Task: structure prediction
Amino acid sequence: MDRKRRPDWTSGLKQLYDQVVEEPLPDAFKDLLSKLDDGKQ
Amino acid sequence: MSRPERELPERSADDKRAFKRELTEVVPHLRAFARGLCGRPDMADDLVQEALLKAWAAQDRFEPGTSMRAWTFVILRNAYLTDMRRNRFRGEYDETAAERILTAPAGQEEPIHLSDMHRALLTLPPERREALLLVGAGGFSYEEAANICGCAVGTIKSRVGRARAALTSMIEDGDIPDRAIGDPAAHRAILEELDEVAAGRGLAVPTK
Result:
C-alpha cells in the first residue's frame, strides 16, 4: 500500500472503505476466529 | 481455487500463530472490500466468514512476509464470484435492505455525499467496481490489483479510469441510476455482467 501517493479522487472511496474498517467487529467473527484458534476448523 | 501444487515448507507453531494474527488483522479490510463488492452488509459478512475459513484451510500456501491482505482479497473475490455463479445471492436479493443501505446516510451532512458515492459505486459494472475498490478505496497499487484480479496491469488501469469517469459523471450530474435498487432488469444485467467476469477471470494468480 502506498498511502503517500494516493490521489485526491480516492477520498470518498477511502471514506466508504474506512467506515467499515473502523466498525467494531461483530461477535460472529470473534467466535469464528476463536474456533480457528482451537484447531477446530 | 485450483492452483498448481508445489512443495510447501512445514509450518512451525510460531508460523501458525503469526498467520492467525495476520488473518485477524485483515478481517476489517475484508469486510470493507466485501461490502463494496456486494453492497449488503449481511451478505458481505457471510462472504468474509467463508473467505476466512478458506484462508485458514489454505494457510500452508501463504508465503510469510507477503501481503496477507492481498492474499485474502484473492480468496474473498473468488468466493464472491463463485457464490454469484451459484445463484446464491440471486434469490435472496432484498429490496428493502438494499434501499436502506443505499440511502442510509441520507439526511446527514456529508461534504462529499457518501451515500451518492456508494450508490453510484454499486451501479458500476462489477469488474470496474472491484478495480476501483482495490485501487481507490483499498489503496492497492495497480500491480497489486492486477495480481488480485488475475489480469494485466493495463486492464486494471483502464477499468479504474472508466470507473472514475463514470462515477464522477454520475455524481457531478446528480444522475445516479437506480439500477442497483429493486429494478429487476437492472439487477439481472448486473448479474449477467458478473457471470462474464467470473467466466473470463476465474484464474486469479496468488499474489506475491
